[in-house]
Design brief:
The chain has 264 residues and is mainly alpha-helical. The protein is globular.
């Protein structure tokens, strides 16, 4: 236990200092976006640029100070805010920021078509996302990985990868799936809201703290460890619902407009 507390103290000290890793990651992300546009020979439209910018902003807010610092070892509720930003908010915005020409080039890459179709299949994406959520919120995993900078980064990247997998079938036009219509996409997202109930119940109604990381953290005045954990569970359910139901509303509106256009 003494070793664990020492490791946590080191991580806290580092997290409260400037976080160069965040800026490095964002720099690589921006450079990659610029490279994709140039390789695709496409102009960066205002809409796609705004979407990408908002996605990058969500990542920055989630990983840099103060959210990154508080989530690293002080408050489980802020850790959940971090999950929502990295796993549910940033991925769809980053995917929306990809130029149409880049999607066309990807669709033409026949050598990757079969593996891409499997990896982005809605059932595969659904399972991958829920496994990532379950594993990265399991107490043993959280307490083991959050004790180090590398472990904390691994959790962040798992959220980003899981979120990208989740949103790919909904947003990305490649590969084309004729049967994955607007109503099916909406049902897919509704299913995600249902599966998030399990960790919500676990965190919200547990009588004891489930994470040693936050139980042994320096106390924050005005909130107990149990209240913080309950807030984390509620944020997971309500915050996730806001994101997913916003997407559901957009999908319904697009479906309605297409149906009206076809009828007209």
């Amino acid at each position: 236990m003494q070793w664990w507390c020492s490791a946590r103290a080191t991580a806290w000290s580092w997290e409260w200092s400037p976080y160069p890793g965040v800026w490095l990651m964002l720099g690589v992300l921006v450079a990659g976006w610029v490279w994709v546009h140039r390789r695709a020979g496409a102009e960066a439209s205002a809409g796609r640029t705004a979407a990408f910018g908002l996605g990058a902003l969500a990542l920055w807010l989630a990983l840099d100070w103060p959210v990154g610092a508080l989530a690293a070892g002080y408050l489980a509720s802020v850790h959940m805010v971090q999950f929502l930003l990295v796993g549910l908010v940033a991925p769809p915005l980053l995917l929306l920021g990809v130029p149409g020409a880049a999607w066309e080039r990807l669709d033409e890459a026949a050598g990757h078509r079969r593996s891409l179709r499997f990896a982005t299949h809605p059932l595969v994406a659904f399972v991958v996302f829920n496994v990532v959520v379950g594993v990265t919120h399991w107490p043993t995993v959280v307490d083991g990985l959050m004790a180090s900078q590398l472990g904390s980064f691994a959790i962040d990247m798992a959220w980003l990868a899981g979120g990208t997998a989740l949103w790919w079938p909904v947003i990305a036009p490649v590969p084309e799936r004729e049967g994955f219509s607007y109503p099916v996409k909406m049902g897919y997202l509704v299913a995600v809201t249902v599966t998030s109930t399990a960790p919500f119940l676990y965190l919200t109604f547990s009588e004891l703290p489930v994470y040693a990381t936050y139980e042994l953290a320096p106390p924050i005045e005005g909130i107990s460890t149990r209240e913080d954990q309950q807030a984390a569970g509620i944020l997971m359910k309500l915050g996730g619902a806001v994101v997913l139901w916003t997407a559901l509303t957009v999908l319904f509106w697009r479906w309605y407009r297409e149906e009206q256009g076809a009828a007209g």
